[in-house]
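Bumping my old thread because nobody answered last time. Still need a sequence for this structure:
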C-alpha cells in the first residue's frame, strides 16, 4: 500500500507534470517569433544581375526605359525616328515618296535624306558626319549631333553598358550620393530590385557613389546609376542631394511680326484681283487702313507652279499710303490640284520658293494663305506646308497669315483646317466669318448674323485655343438679295450677292422701310415683286460696328474685310471711329 501524500506533495507533483508542456509552448512561441523576425527584419542578401530586358542599347528619359533603342556609339550615336517623334518632336515627319525626314522648328526647316551625308537647313546644304540610316528591318535612325543642336537635348552614354540617358533643356536632375561610414570603409550600400529589404540586390554601391534620384516610395528612393541600371536604396543611405538643371540653348532672336503702332487693332482689306489690277487712281481714301491683301498668287498645277498677277505699280501706290502689302496665295479651291501640290517636300518647296521670290521682287511685307475646298486627307499636309513656309518667310521678314472658316461638320469647307496646329506657325489667323447662308443655301438668311459670328469667334478661342492677339475677325462688305417663290406648293429659294450701297439703292428706289432683326443683330428689309418675296439682311453701319464691338469684347487683333470695292465709302470712317483705342 502506497503512502498517502499530503497536500503540499500533491501540488508539487502536479507542477512537475505541467513543466514539459510549458516548455513546449515557450519553444513554439520562440520559434514563431524568430521566423517572424527573420521574415520581417532580416534582409535578403541574394544578388541578381541587372539587365535591360534584352534591350541592347537602351535609352532612358526621366528614369524610364524607352521602347526604342539607340544604335552606334559616341560620335556615331543615332536615335530612332520613332523615339524622336514620340519624345522630342511630334511634328517631325518622314516622307516615303522622297525618302526624306523633315524637321521644322520655329526658325529652321531641315531635310535629311537616307544614306546621304548632305542635308539641307533652310534650303542651304550642310555636311553631316553620319547620315540618316535605315536598318535591314526598315527602322529609321537619325544622327545624334544635329538633334542635339536643333532641340538642345543632352545624351549621356555609358562606356560600361552603352546605355543612353537623355535629358532635355530645362530638365531638373536630382543627384545624390551614397552614405559614407568612416568606421566601416568596406561597407557597401545595397541597391535593390524593389523597395523592400527582401527584394534581391542588383548592385552593391560603393560609399560616396553618385546617382540620380527619380522619386520616393515610402522610406525608399528610386535611383539610377550612370550606367543606366535602376533600383531602390533606403533614403537614410543617400546624402548630399543636389539639383542640376540642363542648360537652355542661347535664345535665338525671335521673329516679331508687324503690329500697328500705339496698340492699334489691325485693319486689313482684301483686294480682289481676277485678271488685272485696279486703277489705283480711282481708289478712294481709306482712313485707318493698315494692310491690303491683293489676291495675286494662285496654284496653277499639281507640280507646285504658281500663277502671278502681282503689280509693282500697285505696291508702289500702297507703300506711298503707308499700307502694308500682304499678298494672298490661293490654292484655286481645286482639291485634286491641292492634293498633288502638297504631296511631297519637293512640290511644297517649289511653291515656297516662288512665294519668296515674288515677295522679294515686289517688296511685299507678308503672305496671306487662303486654301479652301481641301480634301480632309490633306489636313496634316497643309499644316506641314505652313510649318515649312513660315521659317523661310520669317527669315525674309515676311508676316505669315492664314484664312480659316468657322468650325462646322463640313469636311472640305471647315474640318480640314487643323487650327491649333496652324496657329503655332502663323503670325495671324483670319476668321472668314461670313457665308453663314451661302449663295445656294436652301434657306434665306443673313450672310453673317451677329450670334453666329460671335459663336464662331468663341469656338476658335475656347475650343482651339487660338490666342485672341493672333485672330482677326473677317467681316463682309457684301450681302445677298434672297428671292422666294412658290413652285408646285414648295418654296424655291435663290440669291444674288450685292454691294452695301446696292441694298441702300433698292431701299430708296422702292421706298422701303427697314426693321431691326433682333435674332440676326442687324437691319432687315423685305418686299414683294412679281409675286416673289425678296429679303435682305443689311450690311451697314449697324452691322459693321456690331462686329467691331466683338473685336473689342474678345480683344482680337483686328478685322479683315472682304472685299475692297463692295463697301459704302463711309465704312472706313465707321471702322476707324470704333476700332481704334
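Sorry it took so long. Here it is:
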Amino acid at each position: 500500500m502506497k503512502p498517502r501524500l499530503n497536500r503540499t506533495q500533491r501540488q508539487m507533483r502536479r507542477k512537475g507534470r505541467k513543466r514539459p508542456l510549458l516548455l513546449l509552448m515557450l519553444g513554439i512561441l520562440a520559434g514563431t517569433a524568430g521566423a517572424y523576425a527573420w521574415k520581417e527584419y532580416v534582409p535578403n542578401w541574394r544578388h541578381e544581375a541587372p539587365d535591360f530586358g534584352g534591350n541592347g542599347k537602351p535609352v532612358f528619359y526621366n528614369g524610364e526605359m524607352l521602347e526604342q533603342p539607340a544604335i552606334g556609339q559616341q560620335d556615331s550615336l543615332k536615335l530612332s525616328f520613332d523615339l524622336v517623334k514620340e519624345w522630342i518632336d511630334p511634328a517631325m515627319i518622314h516622307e516615303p515618296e522622297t525618302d526624306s525626314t523633315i524637321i521644322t522648328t520655329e526658325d529652321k526647316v531641315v531635310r535629311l535624306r537616307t544614306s546621304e551625308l548632305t542635308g539641307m537647313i533652310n534650303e542651304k546644304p550642310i555636311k553631316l558626319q553620319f547620315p540618316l540610316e535605315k536598318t535591314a528591318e526598315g527602322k529609321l535612325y537619325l544622327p545624334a549631333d544635329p538633334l542635339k543642336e536643333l532641340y538642345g537635348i543632352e545624351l549621356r552614354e555609358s562606356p560600361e553598358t552603352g546605355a543612353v540617358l537623355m535629358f532635355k533643356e530645362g530638365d531638373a536632375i536630382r543627384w545624390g550620393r551614397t552614405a559614407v561610414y568612416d568606421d566601416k570603409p568596406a561597407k557597401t550600400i545595397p541597391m535593390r530590385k524593389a523597395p523592400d529589404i527582401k527584394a534581391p540586390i542588383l548592385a552593391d554601391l560603393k560609399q560616396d557613389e553618385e546617382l540620380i534620384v527619380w522619386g520616393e516610395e515610402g522610406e525608399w528612393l528610386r535611383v539610377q546609376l550612370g550606367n543606366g541600371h535602376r533600383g531602390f536604396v533606403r533614403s537614410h543611405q543617400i546624402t548630399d542631394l543636389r539639383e542640376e538643371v540642363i542648360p537652355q540653348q542661347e535664345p535665338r532672336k525671335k521673329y516679331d511680326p508687324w503690329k500697328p503702332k500705339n496698340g492699334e487693332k489691325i485693319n486689313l482689306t482684301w483686294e480682289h484681283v481676277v485678271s488685272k489690277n485696279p486703277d489705283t487712281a480711282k481708289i478712294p481714301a481709306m482712313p485707318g487702313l493698315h494692310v491690303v491683301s491683293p489676291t495675286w498668287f494662285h496654284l496653277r498645277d499639281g507640280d507646285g507652279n504658281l500663277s502671278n498677277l502681282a503689280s509693282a505699280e500697285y505696291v508702289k501706290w500702297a507703300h506711298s499710303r503707308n499700307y502694308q502689302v500682304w499678298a494672298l496665295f490661293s490654292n484655286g479651291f481645286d482639291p485634286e490640284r491641292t492634293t498633288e501640290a502638297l504631296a511631297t517636300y519637293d512640290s511644297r518647296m517649289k511653291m515656297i520658293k516662288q512665294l519668296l521670290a515674288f515677295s522679294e521682287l515686289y517688296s511685299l511685307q507678308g503672305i496671306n494663305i487662303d486654301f479652301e475646298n481641301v480634301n480632309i486627307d490633306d489636313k496634316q499636309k497643309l499644316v506641314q506646308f505652313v510649318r515649312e513656309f513660315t521659317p523661310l518667310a520669317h527669315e525674309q521678314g515676311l508676316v505669315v497669315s492664314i484664312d480659316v472658316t468657322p468650325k462646322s461638320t463640313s469636311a472640305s469647307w471647315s474640318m480640314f483646317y487643323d487650327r491649333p496646329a496652324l496657329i503655332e506657325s502663323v503670325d495671324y489667323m483670319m476668321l472668314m466669318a461670313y457665308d453663314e447662308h451661302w449663295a445656294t443655301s436652301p434657306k434665306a438668311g443673313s450672310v453673317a448674323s451677329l450670334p453666329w459670328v460671335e459663336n464662331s469667334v468663341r469656338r476658335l478661342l475656347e475650343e482651339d485655343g487660338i490666342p485672341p492677339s493672333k485672330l482677326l475677325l473677317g467681316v463682309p462688305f457684301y450681302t445677298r438679295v434672297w428671292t422666294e417663290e412658290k413652285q408646285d406648293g414648295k418654296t424655291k429659294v435663290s440669291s444674288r450677292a450685292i454691294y452695301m450701297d446696292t441694298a441702300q439703292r433698292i431701299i430708296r428706289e422702292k421706298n422701303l422701310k427697314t426693321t431691326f432683326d433682333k435674332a440676326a443683330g442687324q437691319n432687315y428689309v423685305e418686299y414683294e415683286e412679281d409675286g416673289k418675296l425678296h429679303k435682305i439682311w443689311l450690311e451697314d453701319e449697324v452691322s459693321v460696328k456690331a462686329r467691331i464691338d466683338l473685336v473689342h469684347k474678345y480683344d482680337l487683333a483686328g478685322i479683315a474685310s472682304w472685299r475692297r470695292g463692295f463697301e459704302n465709302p463711309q465704312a472706313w470712317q465707321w471702322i476707324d471711329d470704333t476700332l481704334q483705342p
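The radius of gyration is 37 Å. Let me know if any region looks off to you.
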